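Listing S7. Sequence submitted for prediction.
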Amino acid sequence: MKSQLGRVVPFGVLIVGIVLVLLAAGGSVAWGQDQEIANPLVRAPWTGDLDGILDRGFVRVLVSPSRTNFFFDREDLRGFDVEWMDAFEKQLNAGRKRSKRIRVVWVPKPFGALLPALKAGLGDIAIGGMTVLPSREQGIVFSDPYMTGVDEVIVHHRRVEGLKSLDDLAGRTITLRTHSSYEVHLKEISEAFTGRGLKPSVIRAIGTRLATEDILEMVNAGIVDLTVADRYLAESWAQVMPNLVVRTDLEISAGGALAVAVRIGNPQLLESLNRFIRANKKGTLLGNMLFTRYFTQSRWLRDPSADLQGATRHVFELIRTYAARYDFDWLDIVAQAFRESRLDQSKRSRAGAVGIMQIKPSTAADPNVGIKNIET
């Protein structure tokens, strides 16, 4: 592969160079009824309460994409969060004329950006498997829980040995989603190790755009050994990821609660959400039906190892080699590549993005990248 200067560019260098462009990319797209929303009011900062939402005609829901909560199935939006908020939309529209109907508008953001975006007025509600934590309650307020009794457990590749208790995590590297409750709770355990004279765990928080499901897949593929996940989520994906071992005996946190967040100055919206949650949380008819649909007997759960071709290992080693040569964190690059394509160079998107890093030709032509041929 040649750059515009004419020199040959090794494939690993191409990946390392392109990842910088991707990691620097920002912004978000708003969606509603399977279409991008062009209304400038959707994107503009606004911090009003439910009465203003009813006047505006839409409620903006900040969400972190994942393969169980918010994803596309061909042209359709699917996921636990999607169907659950559809039901909330129906509650908002009860008794309203068709011409005055309220729409849910989705605003996807990386998980760590959900609460900052909410505080900044870029959305009205934040959702996405969010654990209630005191450290998160600054400028926002959590609704009543829609799921309780959530345990966070160690998940590892089946080749990992010697884990009999939490103490055996001392000195081990554990890879998990950044800005997660897992990171908070594991740091507490690691600090306790240090206080007892044990080695601290090495906590690698990666991938601002990675979902927990993506890291579980990385464990299944053998790219990383250990992670942490909500037990219900790990057990769901262990059904189709044959290399995952879910250690229900190794809890880093027990009895957590999942809730949605609103700004602290929006009591009307909070009351409306709490009324909805009381009728539709897990344990109710709708809550149980959606939990079963997406976490227990989901037709969207599938064995991702089918996507990992023989070339994947070769690509993985290339990334490690060239990341080391140019002083990048190889795991950050692998995580980004996994998120984009599952390390599949043959992947093509409808938007024209190509290969492992899902790069458009226009991006490759950027002077900071300078690659003419991104096909091979």
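Caption to Listing S7: primary sequence and predicted structure tokens for the chain studied. The two ends are 7 Å apart (CA to CA). Residues 153 and 250 are 6 Å apart (CA to CA).
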